[in-house]
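Why does residue order matter? Because the sequence determines the fold. Keep that principle in mind as you read this record.
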Amino acid sequence: MPAEKDEVPSPAAPGPDGPGPDIDQVVIRRRVQYFLELLESRYLDERWKAAEALGELGDPSAVEPLIRALEDPYVDVGWIAAKSLGSIGDPRAVGPLITALASKEKWMKIGASIGLGKLKDPRAVKPLIATLKDKDRLVRRHAAWALGNIGDTDAIPALEVAAKDPDETVRTAAEVALHMLKQKK
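Structure:
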């Protein structure tokens, strides 16, 4: 039965030459491409916004460009790229994020911890345990969160030490992580 005059066919409806493209996927691909181009902008605010948007879109084609963005001269871009890599969930990001944990930049270490915690890859456990000894309390707190989120019970002894940290936020993050891990046993 032909469509009535006011009826609009679905964008994914078959056309005369067969099935049509899923319009949502076309729009997403275009947005990803736009933000990939913006990630190369000469303007800092465009690069960090692009890194953030690519994480929200979650498209695996953004993994390699975001890994490169970890090396951006501005930590504003790198730490957001690290978090976005975790949101995408691709294991190709684990090695570069572990490397980012050794950065001198506090925010890069925080972003790497968040990214690794989201990825839940057991390869990150030992480097994150080492990060629990960082001089910065925010870095230690995020490392504790990441270890709890990864869920590897090998982290329990280190988290028990972190639960005695001089900083209350680190202690709380370690206690929450310990609770999560002990429920797994």
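The CA atoms of residues 110 and 139 lie 5 Å apart.
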